[in-house]
Recover the amino acids of this structure.
């Protein structure tokens, strides 16, 4: 991956999340952004959200694993219900208008992290 400072990465992830309709005032927004940043650097973290990802975020924000999971789930539910259907279709291949259930926390995190990784690889090619 090319060098990219954390602010640029954080800014890109934030714009994607806001585009998907995650309200920035929620605690889950910050937790979700951190989870996506961690997953972007190490996709193995998504394979074990309860043992690796949530504890790391809980430690960062001085809270509990269960509060992290619940806040992320709430942020995803809100974005799924109120968010940009077209962007969900583009990123996930489905949306709530198709009658699909919302993505799980790990699916949501992994998909955005994968999109970020692809974008970084494209920057490397240019």
């Amino acid at each position: 991956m090319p060098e990219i400072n954390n602010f640029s990465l954080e800014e890109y992830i934030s714009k994607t999340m806001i585009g998907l309709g995650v309200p920035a005032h929620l605690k889950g927004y910050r937790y979700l952004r951190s989870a996506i940043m961690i997953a972007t650097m190490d996709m193995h973290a998504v394979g074990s959200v309860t043992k690796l990802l949530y504890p790391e975020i809980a430690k960062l924000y001085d809270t509990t694993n269960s509060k992290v999971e619940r806040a992320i789930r709430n942020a995803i539910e809100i974005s799924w219900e109120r968010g940009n259907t077209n962007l969900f279709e583009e990123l996930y291949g489905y949306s709530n208008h198709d009658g699909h259930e919302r993505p799980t926390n790990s699916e949501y995190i992994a998909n955005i992290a994968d999109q970020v990784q692809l974008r970084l690889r494209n920057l490397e090619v240019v």
